[in-house]
TrEMBL record:
It is found in: Secreted, Extracellular space, Extracellular matrix. Its main location: secreted. It comes from Cisticola juncidis. GO terms for biological process: cell adhesion; cell differentiation. This is EGFL6 protein. One of its GO terms (molecular function) is calcium ion binding. PROSITE patterns: ASX_HYDROXYL, EGF_2, EGF_3, EGF_CA. Belongs to the nephronectin family. Coiled coil: none annotated. Keywords: Calcium, Cell adhesion, Developmental protein, Differentiation, Disulfide bond, EGF-like domain, Extracellular matrix, Repeat, Secreted, Signal. It holds the Pfam family EGF_CA. The keyword Transcription does not apply. Residues 32-71, 112-150, 157-195 form the EGF-like domain.
């Protein structure tokens, strides 16, 4: 089976037919599935969608159980956690629904960890890190776009001279470069390339 556009988070099952891995959707399995919007809802109380998955958390006064349900807990109600809590050896601890969140100084609310600025996120050389609440993702650098080439997805240079997104002067030549472009005034003209006289 061949899938001309590839299957980003899935397998090619037939001519241009993708079978998506759990948590992904779309013709080429390139979109995150928002499990929180599914019926029946996957979480008893609250749900946080993440890239390729989701996390359940409970309202204040409830404790998250291993099966994703929420059990009433007097001790949790007393601690007043933002995202529910757990009891470890008689000690009550507030929880954060994602590894990209950490407990704030008050020990009750969760604050975002910026993986992009702390260096916890690793993106390949031609991708840039984009922080999200509780997580991050890697996006193509400016001047590059995601394309399916030779069996996998890659960030490839956008040829601004071909796509006509350069803004060079009518009296200038457009020269494509990796991730960018240059404008050079034609013979007999001078200027920045965006303005030639």
């Amino acid at each position: 089976a061949t899938c001309g556009h590839g299957c980003k988070y899935g397998e090619c099952m037939g001519p241009n037919k993708c079978k998506c891995f759990p948590g992904f959707t779309g013709k080429t399995c390139n979109q995150d599935l928002n499990e929180c919007g599914l019926k029946p809802r996957p979480c008893e109380h609250r749900c946080m969608n993440t890239h390729g998955s989701y996390k359940c958390y409970c309202l204040n006064g409830y404790m998250l159980m291993p099966d994703g349900t929420c059990a009433s807990s007097r001790t949790c109600a007393m601690v007043n956690c933002q995202y529910g809590c757990e009891e470890v050896k008689g000690q009550v601890q507030c929880l954060c629904p994602s590894g990209g969140l950490q407990l704030g100084p008050n020990g009750r609310t969760c604050i975002d960890i910026d993986e992009c600025s702390t260096g916890r996120a690793v993106c390949s050389y031609n991708r840039r890190c984009v922080n999200t609440f509780g997580s991050f993702y890697c996006k193509c650098q400016l001047g590059y776009e995601l394309k399916y080439t030779s069996g996998h997805y890659n960030c490839v240079d956008v040829n601004e001279c071909v796509t006509n997104t350069h803004g060079c002067s009518l009296h200038a030549e457009c020269l494509n470069t990796q991730g960018s472009f240059q404008c050079q005034c034609k013979q007999g003209y001078q200027g920045s390339g965006f303005d030639c006289a």
